[in-house]
Amino acid sequence: MRRFGIRAEINGGASISKLVRTATKAKTPVTCIIGKQEVLDGTLSVRLYQGNKEIGALPQSEVIARVLQAVAIKGDFKSDPASQAREAAPARALHLEASVE
């Protein structure tokens, strides 16, 4: 992700539920969880702070594309990427365990 200009923080050493709780308390807008299954499948499990919504497993390339698109239009990471073009969202920082540059 850093290759694409997305500032990301990697956390580990705790249970996944504790890491998710920590990200939620920090109000991290986009959290990607990578467990054993995600590594095998080549996906990222995505959670959004807004609405405490779990998007689910997405290919890494799709997550990167959605984050970059959201930054480009100063919108939100949406479960439906086409909705970003239809909605005018207020500017806000997006995070993957941190913030997007």
Topology (elements, then pairings):
Blueprint: H1 16-25, E1 30-33, H2 36-41, E2 43-48, E3 53-59, H3 60-72, H4 82-86
Antiparallel strand pairs: 1-2, 2-3
Pfam families: HGTP_anticodon (PF03129)
Protein name: AA_TRNA_LIGASE_II domain-containing protein
GO molecular function: ligase activity
**Number of discrete helical segments:** 4
Global Rg: 13 Å
Write down the overall geometry.
globular
Averaged pLDDT, please? 76
How many structural units, i.e. domains? 1
Question: Which fold name fills CATH's third level, the topology?
Answer: Rossmann fold
Count all strands and give the number: 3
Termini distance? 11 Å
**Unreliable stretches covering 5 or more consecutive residues:** 84-101
Order of helices and strands: HEHEEHH
As a percent range, the share of helical residues equals 25-40%
List the strand order in the largest sheet.
1-2-3
Q: State the major sheet.
A: 3 strands, antiparallel
CATH class division: Alpha Beta
Strand percent estimate: 15-25%
Q: CATH H-level name... which superfamily?
A: Anticodon-binding domain
Reported CATH architecture: 3-Layer(aba) Sandwich
Instruction: Give the structural class.
Output: alpha+beta
